[in-house]
C-alpha cells in the first residue's frame, strides 16, 4: 500500500507552480504583448503606427483633392475649427485662438489599445483658451467589436458632459491604413459594426456620436447606407472649393474638413452654422 508523504506532495505542487510561472513569463515576453498591457482585448490586433492615423490621413492618399490651405470664400454663418492628433505634438492653442479658431476635435484613441500621448495638452489646452472641443476615435473595424471600441473610447477621453464646451465624440470611419479598404468586412457587416459602436456610445454618454467619413469610402464600404443620416451629425472631409456630394441619408453636413494644409496645424474645418448652433450641438 503506498505511503502518503505530505512533504513530497508539497514539493510536487511547488514544482508545478514554477513551471506554470515560467510558461506565463514566456507568454508575456512574446512580440506584441505590449499591446495587451495597454488594454488590448481578446481578438485585437497590434497597431503598427497609430501616430500616423488621424482624421483624413488616408483621404488624400486615396481620393486626392487640391487645397491651398486657405478657407473657402463666400460661406455664411460658419465657425472655424481644427482637428489634431499626436502627429501635431504640443499645440499652440493661443495662436489658433488668435487666428479665429473656435472649436477643436482631438484624437483620443484607436482600436482598443492606443491612446494619444498628447491628449491632455490638446484636449485641455483647447478648452483652456476658450474653445469648444471634442474627442474622436480612429476606428479599426477588423481589430475588435464596435462595442469594445466605443467603451475604450469613452474610458480614455471620449466621454461627454453638458458643460457647454464639450462636443459629442466623433467616430472616424475611413480607409484602412493597414490593409483592405473596408477592413475585410462586407457592407452589411460594416453597417452593423457602426451600429454597435453607436448604440454603446449612446448608452454610455447619452449622445449620438458624430460620424467622420468621406462619400467615396462610405459608398464603397457601407453600400451607401442611409441608416445613420437621421441620427448622427456628419463630419465630411473634402479638400476642394465645396463639400460636394454627401453620403446617403444626410441632407446636410455638420462639419467640413476643407484642408489638410492649414495654418498652425494642417487640418482645418468649418462648422455649418453660427456659433450659437455649435453651442447647441455641444449642449445636446
Which terms would index this structure?
about 280 residues, alpha/beta, 9 helices, disordered N terminus
Number of strands: 9
Radius of gyration: 23 Å
Enumerate the strands of the largest sheet in spatial order, edge to edge or round the barrel: 1-2-4-5-6-7-8-9
What class do helices, strands and sheet pairing give?
Answer: alpha/beta
| Main sheet record | 8 strands, mixed, barrel
Order of helices and strands: HHHEHEEHEHEHEHEEEH
Shape: globular
Q: Helix proportion of residues, in percent?
A: 25-40%
Summed over residues and divided by their number, the pLDDT gives a mean of 84
The span between the termini is: 78 Å
**Content of β-strand:** 15-25%
Low-confidence stretches: 1-6, 19-43
Alpha plus pi helix count: 9
What would you say this structure looks like, in words?
A hairpin with an 8-residue loop joins strand 8 and strand 9. This protein has 284 residues and is α/β, with parallel strands linked by helices. It has an eight-stranded mixed barrel with strand order 1-2-4-5-6-7-8-9. The longest helix has 23 residues, at 6-28. The chain is globular. It contains nine helices and nine strands. Helix 6 runs parallel beside helix 7 (187-205).
Brief overview:
The chain has 284 residues and is of the alpha/beta class.
Secondary-structure topology with pairs:
Layout lengths: L5 H23 L4 H5 L21 H5 L14 E7 L8 H6 L4 E8 L3 E2 L3 H10 L3 E7 L7 H10 L14 E3 L14 H19 L4 E3 L2 H8 L11 E4 L17 E5 L8 E5 L2 H9 L1
Parallel strand pairs: 1-2, 2-4, 4-5, 5-6, 6-7, 7-8
Antiparallel strand pairs: 1-9, 2-3, 8-9
Helix pairs in contact: 6-7
Amino acid at each position: 500500500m503506498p505511503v502518503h508523504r505530505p512533504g513530497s506532495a508539497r514539493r510536487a505542487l511547488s514544482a508545478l507552480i514554477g513551471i506554470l510561472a515560467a510558461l506565463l513569463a514566456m507568454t508575456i515576453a512574446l512580440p506584441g504583448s505590449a499591446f495587451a498591457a495597454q488594454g488590448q482585448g481578446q481578438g485585437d490586433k497590434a497597431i503598427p503606427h497609430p501616430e500616423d492615423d488621424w482624421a483624413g490621413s488616408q483621404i488624400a492618399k486615396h481620393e486626392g483633392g487640391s487645397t491651398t490651405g486657405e478657407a473657402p470664400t463666400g460661406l455664411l454663418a460658419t465657425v472655424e475649427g481644427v482637428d489634431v492628433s499626436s502627429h501635431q505634438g504640443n499645440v499652440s492653442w493661443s495662436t489658433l485662438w488668435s487666428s479665429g479658431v473656435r472649436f477643436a476635435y482631438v484624437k483620443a484613441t484607436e482600436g482598443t489599445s492606443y491612446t494619444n500621448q498628447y491628449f491632455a495638452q490638446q484636449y485641455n489646452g483647447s478648452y483652456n483658451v476658450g474653445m469648444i472641443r471634442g474627442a474622436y476615435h480612429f476606428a479599426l473595424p477588423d481589430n475588435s467589436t464596435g462595442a469594445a471600441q466605443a467603451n475604450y473610447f469613452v474610458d480614455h477621453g471620449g466621454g461627454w458632459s453638458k458643460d457647454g464646451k464639450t462636443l459629442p465624440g466623433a467616430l472616424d470611419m475611413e480607409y484602412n491604413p493597414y490593409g483592405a479598404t473596408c477592413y475585410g468586412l462586407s457592407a452589411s457587416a460594416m453597417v452593423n459594426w457602426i451600429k454597435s459602436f453607436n448604440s454603446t456610445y449612446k448608452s454610455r454618454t447619452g449622445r449620438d456620436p458624430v460620424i467622420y467619413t468621406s462619400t467615396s469610402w462610405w459608398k464603397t464600404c457601407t453600400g451607401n447606407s442611409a441608416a445613420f443620416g437621421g441620427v448622427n451629425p456628419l463630419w465630411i472631409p473634402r479638400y476642394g472649393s465645396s463639400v460636394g456630394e454627401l453620403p446617403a441619408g444626410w441632407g446636410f453636413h455638420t462639419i467640413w474638413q476643407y484642408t489638410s494644409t492649414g495654418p498652425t496645424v494642417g487640418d482645418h474645418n468649418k462648422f455649418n452654422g453660427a456659433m450659437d448652433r455649435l453651442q447647441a450641438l455641444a449642449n445636446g
